[in-house]
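Notes from the pairing session

We agreed to fold both candidates in a single pass and log them together. This is the raw record for the first candidate, unedited. Please don't reformat it; downstream parsing expects exactly this layout.

Candidate A
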Amino acid sequence: MLPASTHNQIGRRNFLRVGAIGGMTLPHLLQLEKVFASDTAPKSDVNCLFIFILGGMPHQDMWDLKPQAPAEIRGDFQPISTAVPGLQISDVLPQTAKVTDKFSILRSLTHTDSDHGRGFHIMMTGKEPGAGDFNGNQNNNQHPCIGSMVAKLGTPGALPPYISVPNFMNSGGPSFLGASYGPFVIAADPAAPDFSVRDTSLPISVNSARSSRRRTALQQINQLEQEAEKLSKQVRSLDVFYEKAFNLMTSQAAKEAFDIQREPDTVREEYGMTSMGQCCLLGRRMVEAGCRFVSIENGHWDTHRKNTWSLRELLCPSFDQAVPALLNDLEQRGLLDSTLVVITTEFGRTPRINDLAGRDHWPNVFSVLMAGAGIEGGQIVGASDKQAAAVADRPITPEDLTATILHVMGIDYETVLKTPLGRPVPLADGGKPVFELFS
């Protein structure tokens, strides 16, 4: 498959260029652009699986190999053919190579911060952070994360609109949107034998009748308090949490979605009995049940030492099993057209291998994968230079990635929200969707 820059012969830019040369009038151009835009129109029923590879995927060892570069740059992996003619990825991903027709590779992501925590914030929110320490698994958002944007503006379903597994993700919070738009956190590894999701069932000491009486009493008290207009914002917020918790505990759909034991052993084994595999499977169950945005963290990819060994022996095997299983499963269930899959990371790795046989942090250029929800598979968008050190074609920013996700999910990426003090805050901060991705 040719890169998107040549594969998509009728792109928006080409439309305008051809129109200018051919003497089309402005009304004609606007009409054509409207037709083109309709082909990539967002859908309000799309859900998202947002898989964050924590630590920094080495793009030149997985998605963007440079076999002609010197040994200290190209590394130990070899490019292999894939399901898409002309598209090659690393030999450390043989199973993923079989499903390249289902995803596109964006090879020209770029930003300027090589710190893990700040990189998390940039990629989780599409916004560069200001001063401060952004390391540590904490709610340190200066801008709402994408999941919270979806929770605020997306159409809700049966489950919480934003769920995070297997923990709260760094910079995965709602910022000024408020805690009610934060994630429902599944703080447990679904690969564990005793895995269960807390807070999805009533305490044993509280039966259904008693719970209903409590809820009715709360509603009556709230009505009196609201009439008196004496509720503080804090109490109102607690009521929101109570209502959400009650709905979750009494929802049969939620209980079933979180119960991964309902899956046949053959399906669980297809994904792999690893954290990556079972988180992806649980994520599929949650979007299938109506969760709008599921964030999945897969960590320990910070390969400053023994990069080759780490990828081959520890990191890529579970990834290479889980990702193809997820994409195949979504397709077989008829869910791929309504599920956006994003596989991202905070930055790439240095072009040159260091003295410890590792690669260090490199935000200048790196790769991200996107699949489903109208994205055409088998594409390459953008390119790095001969050493995988800089963008050579079609730079894509985190703001662009955010805008693309929101657009696909039917949310206006140009939306401007206001902080409690009235300061206007654009969601995607000037980013534009990567329209080359769409068929």
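Candidate B (folded immediately after A)
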Amino acid sequence: MTKRDIANILAEKYKISQVDSKKIVQGTFDTIIETLLKNGRIELRNFGVFIVKHRKARKARNPRTGAQVMVPEKKVVTFKPGRLMQNKIK
């Protein structure tokens, strides 16, 4: 499913134009990203929690050549689904 699919579903469900629906979906995603950059965490009740975590630098091995390489430290976004989502998926 893509952003366009989500926007189309919302446009049909709430009887709004697809243009407005696309703006709302994009605005929601932009707000999530901005909040993660600012706070490092966003909790959406009954959906889940997005958290920015810090990964340390580490040594890894190139599977093709077997040579050791250094992987630099970086920040990654993790997602932990909420209880309601977990129960519905089960």
